[in-house]
Amino acid sequence: MKALVCTEFAPYGDHKVIEIDAPKMKPGHVRLKIHAAGVNFPDILMVQGQYQFKPPFPFIAGAECAGEITELGEGVKHLKVGQRVASLPGVGCFAEEAVVPAEICIPISDKMSYEEAAGFVMVYATSHHSLKDRSDLKPGETLLVLGAAGGVGLTAVELGKRMGATVIAAASTQEKLDICKEYGADHGILYDEEDLKARVRKITGGKGADICYDPVGDKYAEPALRSLAWGGRYLVIGFAAGQIPKVAFNWMLLKELDVRGIHWGAWIPKNPKGHMENMGELMTMYENGEIKPRVSGTHKLENFADAMLALTERRVKGKVVLTMR
After folding, report:
1. Does residue 202 share a domain with residue 161?
2. Pick from 263, 279, 303: which residue ends a domain?
3. Is residue 249 located within the same domain as residue 128?
4. Most exposed: 118, 141, 259, 272, by fewest CB within 10 Å?
């Protein structure tokens, strides 16, 4: 089978798709014929040795995928051959086949394409966990979303609006803000051109935002933190803009702000029941037409570097996906 195999940490463009043997079956696992795999910023960091989790070499890159079950391992009773599922094993998805634990396979709707499913779990589940379990979001509160047209950002806009928030989307281009408004944003800020803090203050009548959802970090963090209202909550999702920001603790003291880290992947094994409940809620929302995954573009497995370049250059609006078939 073809796979993107990493034998050392290196810039993502230096890695290669090669032919290797298909993985061996294990008890409690299933074999997937992968049709599509989502490309996420952590995938880029991982192959370059910049992610907090560093798999042993050699490893196959790719955290999430969608495909068809072709074989059941010993002891697997709740799934069947031919079933369409999404899975997020963390590694192993940029390949034509994968053997993954049966317990992390999520059956997908017949309405959902493999491309949608491949880019669904990580971004929607991250935002759902962030807003439902970590933010204390109440209807009527104001939610500021940075990187609002990206993979997780757009789902935060969509889910935040559905939960009753007034959503302020911050992005780098007007085209991205227009997409955010299609997904429910009430206001938009071009944060590379406008004073973020001043615009948030104006939109909120001087109060500030109740919650900031930040997957970008870097230079955007300070003005976003300063734009929060008294008792505001700052959700740290990631650092897609490059640098981990350094902030002064006195800002939190002066307005009794909370800074809350979101490590959704680490939360899952600590609360597997909560994770499956959340996924059930998200799949129901999809079935009911309440959320609509946006696939920004698809690339063949061999062209993985083009997909990663689009992410690093901030050209992606929604999710970018690799296809295997």
Report:
1. yes
2. 263
3. yes
4. 272
Q: Cα–chain-centroid distance for residue 107?
A: 19
| Block residue for tokens 């051109």 | 193
Query: According to the 3-state scheme, what is the secondary structure of the chain?
Result: CEEEEECCCCCHHHCEEEECCCCCCCCCEEEEEEEEEEECHHHHHHHCCCCCCCCCCCEECCCEEEEEEEEECCCCCCCCCCCEEEECCCCCCCECEEEEEHHHEEECCCCCCHHHHHCCHHHHHHHHHHHHHHCCCCCCCEEEECCCCCHHHHHHHHHHHHCCCEEEEEECCHHHHHHHHHCCCCEEEECCCCCHHHHHHHHCCCCCEEEEEECCCHHHHHHHHHCEEEEEEEEECCCCCCCCCCCCCHHHHHHCCEEEECCHHHHHHHCHHHHHHHHHHHHHHHHCCCCCCCEEEEEEHHHHHHHHHHHHCCCCCCEEEEECC
Identify the domain containing residue 314 by its residue range: 2-120+293-323
Q: What is the pTM of this model?
A: 0.91
Q: How many structural domains are present in the chain?
A: 2
Per-residue pLDDT of the chain (325 residues; tens, 9 = 90+): 999 999 999 999 999 999 999 999 999 999 999 999 999 989 999 999 998 889 999 999 999 999 999 999 999 999 999 999 999 999 999 999 999 999 999 999 999 999 999 999 999 999 999 999 999 999 999 999 999 999 999 999 999 999 999 999 999 999 999 999 999 999 999 999 999 999 999 999 999 999 999 999 999 999 999 999 999 999 999 998 888 999 888 989 999 999 999 999 899 989 989 998 999 999 999 999 999 999 999 999 999 999 999 999 888 888 999 999 8
In the structure encoding, which two tokens stand for residue 31, read together? 């074999």
CATH number of the domain encompassing residue 16: 3.90.180.10
Crossing angle of helices 151-162 and 121-128, rounded to 10°: 50
Considering the domain architecture, whether residues 129 and 41 belong to the same structural domain is answered as no
Does 274 reside within a domain? no
